[in-house]
Amino acid sequence: MVYNSGVKLTYSPGKCLPFGATYTPHGVQFSIFSRHATAVYLQLFASAEDAQPAAEIKLDDHHKTGDVWHVLVHEAKPGQLYLYRVEGPYDPKHGHRFNPDIPLLDPYAKELAYPAEYDLQNARGYDYSRAEKDLVRGPGRDAANFPKCVVIDDDEFEWQGDRPLNYPLRFSVIYEAHVRGLSAHPSSQVKHPGTYRGIIEMIPHLKELGITSLELLPVQEFDTNEYDRVNPETGERLTNYWGYSTLGFFAPKASYASDPSPGAAVYEFKEMVRELHKAGIEVILDVVYNHTGEGNEMGPTINFRGLDNSVYYMLDDNRRYYKNYSGCGNTLNCNHPVVRSLIQDSLHYWVTEMHVDGFRFDLGSILGRDQRGNLMENPPILERIAEDPVLRHTKIIAEAWDAAGAYQVGWFPGGRWAEWNDRYRDDVRKFWRGDYGMARQLATRMTGSSDLYLRDGRKPFHSINFITSHDGFTLRDLVSYNAKHNTANGEDNRDGHNHNISFNYGTEGPSDNERIRQVRLQQQKNYMATLLLSIGTPMLLAGDEIGRTQHGNNNAYCQDNELSWTDYRLCKEYGELHRFVQGLIAFRKRHPSFLRPEFYTGTDGAFNGLPDISWFEPSGEPLNWETVNDCLAFRLDGSHAEIHADRDDNDFFVMANASRRAVAFQVAPAIEGKHWYRAIDTALPESECFPEPGSEPPIDADGVYPVRAKSMVVLIAR
């Protein structure tokens, strides 16, 4: 067989495993699964722009083991571009959607190369012009506007001794960010904005802030041009910015690389991980194994649908249609053995070859559904991930719900899973907004949510505590808007949550009123102080530390522009908040009391006879849980910190006042020989609200501390 203007190709059956394209000393081994295919063709391309392959190899029975089609191409090398064509029945009513006349991506591809102009959404396997639509197989199409898979040699990269950091959760401070959003704004002043290398250039900002773990929104390949809507305010086309429509579970997003050449995305991603690790920062990936970017029955055929639709997806009883627990048109058949292996192989790849430290699983409850969509008590894939020996020290974090009503916060199956705790988010928001009777809930959330995690043996750090995330208002918008303002998304403001638990304090949006500006800043400090002084694992949304705003848009999934990007000019305007958050993170790291691995028990300490935690009314009396409303105080006994065996921590007295009036708190006496000093007061001006360690002023001798309206105070005993 002649390839690429005269090169003669030789090939042999090779081996069936591993899946994907694997570079070996004897050439490149190609392997792909399809149970119901009748023939498979490997297409080799010379460039990403090519419409037709330079060579095509038909895989016959000599190239098949069980349901796996495979071939070893001896002359192929890293950088080789390839696709597949697959023959089989086109019978949607029985779940089959094969079309040999359209190209398909390899589900195990490690990188994609894109032509200058590409269109995945018109890669239909059916005849859109016919009245029967997807019931009739469509005409063929060439590969000119279709991305190509790239052969990668993972041994080419020099890791310089790097390994995943794998910090214990209780020591982690997670920072949720978008690859482009972190450095795309001109104010970042980086050489490679919006890329993996742009993140490397932002490391000084991350180090200065003090976070330990960078959690990135999806970087696994997806179609940026998935949407055809435009912004009604600007006329600009809207894009899939967040990336929650995966096409390749092994491939880092190619457009996030500064170099467009094949192989650059893998190299630059690894480079980013290595440099973040050198700076002591973990990498956690937000992964989407619950559905793909192929949509419902009217969506494009890109890979899974054309390879074996009835295996990869959960199909309805009428197998023309897809079960849609994701809200995105389809649901991956996660507990089919083939799909389980795909997920586990993907996770292994990102840990062993890309050195990532953890994963946050979007709509994780879907991974607990069986092949008919029923929630299982012991889902095989979730148990398999939790018990996997390769992933033993890898963080696994679940979004413990899905779009079809499953809600498993506090009882997500599978063992050691941590969870996004939206109960924490909502209860803390309600308390500081001033909702009636929320102090009891605040106490539960700040002490690790024992109501959710104690009963099944999990620990406080399994609660991923957050106030804001990519999905919803930013922290500044949370205190600036009563309602969402999503018209720029082109959906007539119908999209996004309506239950935001927010408050604008008198004006919707920006305000020149100094009183409003001050209470908004104070509330942002309250939220941050609550988050970083709660036991559990805190997660911050990128830009919240400098007052990033989306102007009331609480669903910026399609906004790849300054609405979503972090504007670092805010470091000046919101410098006070920035310094406050820096101080809080350092304070948390410095004091084991806020890093407890165990829940409070209320029992007496071994050294001073005090309980590990004590609760008080503002009057100083023990807290009445039946009547507590919007004020509470608690004392932490540092001898119970249980983190470092060689030392105890300081004692702390924390007071929270969510009411609209100042409240005088009677502070519990410090233990003999010690006195209380003011460490934090969110109501005081910057020069006083967070003194340097060791310079905290003592409180008045009478032990009464006036806690101003909407403020939080932390005292430290020395």
Task: Offer a concise description of the structure.
It comes from Spirochaeta africana (strain ATCC 700263 / DSM 8902 / Z-7692). The protein is α/β, with parallel strands linked by helices.
Present the secondary structure layout.
Elements lengths: L1 E2 L3 E2 L2 E2 L7 E5 L2 E7 L5 E7 L9 E5 L4 E2 L2 E6 L7 E7 L2 E2 L4 E2 L14 E2 L34 E3 L23 E4 L1 H5 L12 H6 L1 H7 L3 E4 L3 E3 L23 E7 L11 H15 L3 E6 L16 H9 L24 H16 L5 E4 L18 H8 L7 E4 L19 E3 L1 H12 L5 H8 L3 H4 L9 E4 L8 H4 L35 H19 L4 E5 L28 H4 L1 H16 L22 E4 L14 E6 L15 E6 L5 E4 L9 E6 L4 H4 L14 E4 L3 E7 L1
Family: Belongs to the glycosyl hydrolase 13 family.
InterPro entries: GH, GH13_cat_dom, GlgX_Isoamylase_N_E_set, Glyco_hydro_13_N, Glyco_hydro_b, Glycogen_debranch_GlgX, Ig-like_fold, Ig_E-set
Pfam families: Alpha-amylase (PF00128), CBM_48 (PF02922), Isoamylase_C (PF21331)
Question: Please, how many domains?
Answer: 3
Sheet with most strands: 8 strands, parallel, barrel
CATH class of the largest domain: Alpha Beta
Cα radius of gyration in angstroms: 28 Å
Average predicted local confidence, pLDDT: 96
SS summary, helix count: 15
CATH homologous superfamily placement of the largest domain: Glycosidases
Strand order of the largest sheet: 15-16-19-20-21-22-23-24
CATH architecture of the largest domain: Alpha-Beta Barrel
Oligomer: single chain
* Uncertain stretches of 5 or more adjacent residues: none
Shape: elongated
Helix content: 10-25%
Distance between the termini: 81 Å
Question: Per DSSP, what share of the residues sits in E-state strands of 2 or more residues?
Answer: 15-25%
